[in-house]
Design brief:
There is one protein chain. The longest helix is centred in the N-terminal third of the chain and has 17 residues. By secondary structure, the protein is α+β, with helices and mostly antiparallel strands. The strands form six sheets. It has a four-stranded mixed beta sheet with strand order 10-11-15-14. Strands 1-9-8 form a three-stranded mixed beta sheet. The protein has a two-stranded antiparallel ribbon with strand order 2-7. About 30% of the residues are buried. It is built from eleven helices and 15 strands. It has four domains: about 100 residues, Orthogonal Bundle (Helix Hairpins), CATH 1.10.287.110; about 100 residues, Sandwich (HSP40/DNAj peptide-binding domain), CATH 2.60.260; about 40 residues, no CATH class; about 110 residues, HSP40/DNAj peptide-binding domain. It binds zinc ion (ZN) (2 copies). One zinc ion binds next to loops.
């Protein structure tokens, strides 16, 4: 795929300031975010594009390389050896472009500004990759995932204070978690807020720390999450588990978890939208005489009737044996492609019989059949 100019993607000109780029990214990322455009593939593509453009243009080194060499610049297209995909775009969205905003809720809720104290206390979001078999995807269902995350400390109930003691309101910031700094310059006076240095922005001071969590109110541990997977998902689809990310600092609100689906390659089937393709080998006598053959399916086995005289390359359809549609009712099919099997070795008797058969004009394809064969099998999976 040819790439669009990163400046054009972000709708800024070439001398845009870092602030312009950030603003443009935020505006576009919110517009195209998958949470707001459920199932809209075009919006998803745009979301990925703006994420990729922002990754490059927000980094001074990458931007300068890009300005000089374009998309071929060293380090510019380097996204860990893979294409920039949806999970990258979501990560950029969570980490980069929106740091300091306090997460999704605030962006989409259109709500009030989050205080420094709340922002610092909120647990971070987690991105959890989930590999799924085609069988799991076809049926959907519940999956258990074991992950390591920050959990609320049960000894201090998340307060961070040792049993029998309590956190005190920070005397420096009065519990707000931020302090005002006044800067004077020839342009005038500026008031800026910064996280309180005395309490690191938490609004509280702990004199006696909880021995289990060291005053954090949380510690790293294993948890098992139960995830309900809708049938029909594919690589790059993700599920949002609100409040299932890392526990907040000293009782702050938890982050969210994003479970990102990765479809495993199947050893027998190939996915084609919501249909699955199975390539079946049949012998020449089976193809010529017809037969009933058992084939594997995503949920067991099914019987396929081979009509006498079937051509190699022909596709038979097992209705409803594919994958359920993700966003609509209905279910895909299993497409069974017939391929002629040729034995590697022949016995003397087999050779003799085949040599006799080879004399028969009826066993040779006629000229018009040779010509029409390609046309017949070319669109087999449409
Ligand atoms: Zn504790
Ligand atoms: Zn303070």
């Amino acid at each position: 795929m040819s790439k669009s100019d990163y400046y054009a993607v972000l709708e800024v000109d070439h001398n845009a300031t870092p602030e312009d780029i950030k603003k443009a990214y935020r505006r576009l990322a919110i517009r195209y975010h998958p949470d707001k455009n459920k199932g809209d593939k075009q919006a998803e593509e745009k979301f990925k594009e703006v994420g990729e453009a922002y990754t490059v243009l927000s980094d001074p080194q990458k931007r300068s390389n890009y300005d000089r060499f374009g998309h071929a610049a060293p380090g510019v297209g380097d996204f860990g050896g893979f294409d920039f995909d949806l999970s990258d775009a979501l990560r950029i969205f969570m980490e980069g472009g929106f740091s300091g905003f306090g997460g999704f809720g605030d962006i989409f809720g259109g709500g009030t500004r989050v205080s420094t104290r709340e922002r610092i206390r909120r647990g971070s979001d987690l991105q959890i990759p989930l590999k799924l078999d085609l069988e799991d995807i076809a049926a959907g269902g519940t999956k258990k995932i074991k992950i390591s995350r920050l959990k609320t400390c049960e000894q201090c109930s998340g307060s961070g204070a040792a049993p029998g003691s309590r956190p005190n309101v920070c005397g420096t910031c009065g519990g707000r978690g931020e302090v005002r700094q006044v800067t004077r310059s020839f342009l005038g006076q500026f008031v800026q807020t910064a996280p309180c240095p005395a309490c690191a922005g938490t609004g509280e001071v702990i004199s006696s720390k909880c021995p289990k969590c060291g005053g954090e109110g949380r510690y790293k541990g294993d948890v098992t999450l139960s995830v309900s997977i809708p049938a029909g998902v594919t690589t790059g689809n993700y599920l949002t588990l609100r409040g299932q990310g890392n526990a907040g600092l000293r009782g702050g609100p938890p982050g969210d978890a994003y479970v990102v689906v990765e479809e495993k390659q199947h050893e027998l089937f190939e996915r084609h939208g919501d249909d699955v393709i199975y390539r079946m080998l049949v012998s020449f006598p089976q193809a010529a005489l017809g037969d009933d053959i058992d084939v594997p399916t995503l949920d067991g086995r099914a019987r396929v009737t081979i009509p006498a005289g079937i051509q190699s390359g022909k596709v038979l359809r097992l209705k409803g044996k594919g994958i359920k549609h993700l966003n609509s009712a209905g279910i895909g099919d299993q497409l069974v492609m017939v391929n002629l099997y040729t034995p590697g070795k022949l016995s003397a008797r087999e050779r003799q019989l085949l040599e006799e058969l080879a004399q028969s004009e009826n066993l040779k394809p006629r000229e018009e059949e040779r010509k029409s064969f390609f046309r017949k099998v070319k669109d087999a999976f449409r």
